[in-house]
UniProtKB/TrEMBL annotation:
<protein>
    <recommendedName>
        <fullName>Phytanoyl-CoA dioxygenase</fullName>
    </recommendedName>
</protein>
<dbReference type="InterPro" id="IPR051961">
    <property type="entry name" value="Fungal_Metabolite_Diox"/>
</dbReference>
């Protein structure tokens, strides 16, 4: 079974739930953090895939993973994996340089990674539809946030995402600085499968909220922080 139609269905279901249960939120314009989905910036979103809300898609992806990150091997390696779809729509703007995860408190610059992220685009990436740009080596240093311009001056940027074909993966340290370069002629949306492979002690708490989009008893708190 193909993944893309199931991804499209998951996105439609999530956005329909927001419109139904949080009608004051303008999807694509307003900032929000829910336990299943969060806005990352204008017209850019991160939708978590779970075994409860997206059972079919979740199972297909997990079972398709080769060793050593297959569903049977993760526990032996003391690892857990989070699955999500990062997608953007027409009108999304260029992102600033950022890391999805910070260095751990007390860790040295050269500390081994506690999480690895894998991007797998579900359509071909290029300058027309948009792509991810990376700052090579930035994961080694704790205090580079806010110095993104230096990556361009020092010729440290990497545009590997610019020519990534659908189904191919880009693997990087969760602390690596990167940014989305948005579309010149965007399709309806650009979906990228994100696999976060992390040590069990690390729990992602910053990128999602606590309320559910399926919670009908709400106060329409679009920030949901």
């Amino acid at each position: 079974m193909k993944i893309l139609p199931l991804v499209q269905e998951a996105i439609v279901n999530a956005e329909t739930a927001i419109r139904s249960n949080y009608p004051t939120i303008k999807i694509g314009e307003d900032s929000f953090l829910f336990s299943e989905i969060a806005s990352r910036s204008k017209q850019r979103f991160d939708l978590l895939l779970s075994s409860t809300t997206n059972a079919k898609l979740y199972t297909i992806i997990r079972n398709a993973l080769p060793p050593p990150v297959s569903i049977t091997n993760l526990e032996d390696l003391d690892l857990e994996m989070d699955l999500s779809i990062v997608y953007s729509k027409p009108g999304a703007n260029h992102q600033g340089w950022h890391a999805d995860g910070n260095h751990l408190v007390g860790a040295s610059d050269a500390e081994l990674p506690y999480a690895i992220c894998i991007f797998i685009p579900l359509i071909d990436l290029n300058v027309t539809v948009g792509y991810t740009q990376f700052w090579l080596g930035s994961h080694k240093y704790k205090n580079l946030q806010g110095f993104g311009k230096f990556s361009e001056i020092s010729n440290s940027t990497c545009d590997i995402g610019r020519t990534t074909k659908k189904g191919n993966g880009i693997l990087y340290d969760y602390r690596l600085l990167h940014r989305e370069q948005e579309q010149e002629q965007p399709p309806y949306y650009r979906p990228v499968l994100q696999l976060l492979c992390r040590r069990k002690f690390y729990k992602e708490k910053n990128n999602y909220g606590t309320k559910s989009i399926y919670d009908t008893d709400n106060d329409n708190d679009m920030q949901n922080k």
